[in-house]
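Quick one, probably user error.
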């Protein structure tokens, strides 16, 4: 407790301390009391506001947080946004973490806890923007996310990668599609979202480039080998992909979804027990390719190959000067595939 100011009675000091505690609890500062009150609309409930947030965010955010927004509404649907305290949020986080689905690659519900807090922060951030709650009063910011553990993913050895491609190309109900998927991800190190968003109009056949649109609304032209470009064009034509529609499709012409990846890796796991045991997924191919590029061509070119952006904290301002160029990425790809590329530097 603070010592009373000179000339202030002990009882008055106690009252001041009590007032400070009360203001702290209400999230109000002395400055707020001196300022003119702000006319804000009534604070909505979670049931009223979360659907509006879901409509406002991008598809990726909606997909990542949708499950957790449902859980929040199930617990606090009829409560106003300004009612839950950081302690209540932490208690809900622990409950969600304890009830998380246990898989072989589970890490004690850390991911579920992290996503719940992120989902709440997203809601409160929008509420601040809409002036529904005072700036700086986001209670979810006061609850720390669980510390992330190092990823268990690693680069796949060449012989193991050959086994994966062999299984994909010789088993299943559409081995041609699956072999194309694996080659696309191996050559471009693209994410699953990038492959699913690819359209016929995103192919530059002359320069052997594909236009990848991935998370965070990032986009880039990525070199591919002439062999892969021909395969993508042929796939698009044979399966009737419209120019501005999704390129990757089933034999019936229906666009593939994320479920194709689940089917592919479940099948690979049945034939390759080591892949099932390690929970190998399509992201391992990204890891494999980028590791190879970094070892052989350096950080700057691997950074560009991956499509990473030069945000603050990502290598610092030095990345401005070591950023890989498109022709350097093409050169790395040409070496990786053993095929000439129209944009690669001359040997």
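Nope, works fine. Designed sequence:
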């Amino acid at each position: 407790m603070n010592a009373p100011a000179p000339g202030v009675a002990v009882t008055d000091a106690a009252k001041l301390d009590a007032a400070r505690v009360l203001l702290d609890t209400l999230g109000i500062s002395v400055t707020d009391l001196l300022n003119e009150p702000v006319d804000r609309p009534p604070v909505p409930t979670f049931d009223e506001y979360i659907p509006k947030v879901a409509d406002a965010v991008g598809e990726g955010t909606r997909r990542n947080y949708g499950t957790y927004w449902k859980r929040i509404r199930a617990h606090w649907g009829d409560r106003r946004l300004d009612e839950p305290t950081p302690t209540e949020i932490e208690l809900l986080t622990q409950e969600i973490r304890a009830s998380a689905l246990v898989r072989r690659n589970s890490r004690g519900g850390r991911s579920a806890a992290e996503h719940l807090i992120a989902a709440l922060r997203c809601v409160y951030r929008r509420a601040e923007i809409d002036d529904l709650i005072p700036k700086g009063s986001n209670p979810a910011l006061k609850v720390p996310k669980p510390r992330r553990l190092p990823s268990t993913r690693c680069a796949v050895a060449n012989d193991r990668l050959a086994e994966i491609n062999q299984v994909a190309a010789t088993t299943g109900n559409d081995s041609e599609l699956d072999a194309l998927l694996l080659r696309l991800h191996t050559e471009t190190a693209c994410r699953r979202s990038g492959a699913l968003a690819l359209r016929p109009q995103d192919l530059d056949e002359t320069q052997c480039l594909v236009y990848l649109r991935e998370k965070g609304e990032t986009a880039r032209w990525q070199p591919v080998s002439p062999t892969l470009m021909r395969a993508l064009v042929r796939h698009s034509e044979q399966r009737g992909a419209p120019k501005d529609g999704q390129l990757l499709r089933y034999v019936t012409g229906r666009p593939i979804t994320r479920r194709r990846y689940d089917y592919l890796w479940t099948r690979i796991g049945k034939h390759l027990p080591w892949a099932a045991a390690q929970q190998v997924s399509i992201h391992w191919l990204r890891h494999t390719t980028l590791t190879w590029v970094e070892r052989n061509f350096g950080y700057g070119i691997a950074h560009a190959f991956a499509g990473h952006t030069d945000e603050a904290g990502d290598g610092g301002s030095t990345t401005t000067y070591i950023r890989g160029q498109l022709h350097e990425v093409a050169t790395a790809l040409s070496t990786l595939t053993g095929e000439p590329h129209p944009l690669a530097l001359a040997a």
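Residues 1-33 form one domain.
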